Amino acid sequence: GAVVSQHPSWVICKSGTSVKIECRSLDFQATTMFWYRQFPKQSLMLMATSNEGSKATYEQGVEKDKFLINHASLTLSTLTVTSAHPEDSSFYICSAPARLAPTYNEQFFGPGTRLTVL
Amino acid sequence: QQQVKQSPQSLIVQKGGISIINCAYENTAFDYFPWYQQFPGKGPALLIAIRPDVSEKKEGRFTISFNKSAKQFSLHIMDSQPGDSATYFCAASGGQLTFGSGTQLTVLP
Asked: From A7, A18, A25, B87, which residue has the greatest number of CB atoms within 10 Å?
């Protein structure tokens, strides 16, 4: 199956700093990528849809100025958590559809990034 | 509004038994129903998926049963093994994935 990687796999930062998480599709191109957040023992919640060459689409309640998304190429999307606070501590996961057509809904997930804000 | 309801929240099964997890959806526009398996600290991995034009799909020990009229679908894990112990999420998609709340499965040796 298609492979999606994330970097870093875990990160610890101080409150008020910014953290960048990378999501890469390794063997396929992805014009769209999705960013999810998962709190302990909870489900995945879609944060935003990253679109190559255009602005991201954010879900209701997600602060776009806090969670900056850049999809600069067909294989890379980045999520930057700005001015991170302890409540931003979570497991961040990206995914990418294996095919370009939006009706093909098969998604492949990255391994996730554990963010801990002290 | 939760569009995909999943039950049970947790499930304990003896080795060799059958694990059954159920999901119900509301949006009739959904046209793709995957199940994901997630181990602690890992991203979810696609287990099996079905589209609404079929009522059942089987892959090895995993079977999805789909009831379009009832807007329900379920995952059956036959001959459950301790290695199957994980959290399972159903999802539904009409473009974006909407996840169920998850089921923590424990298979006792």
From this structure: A25
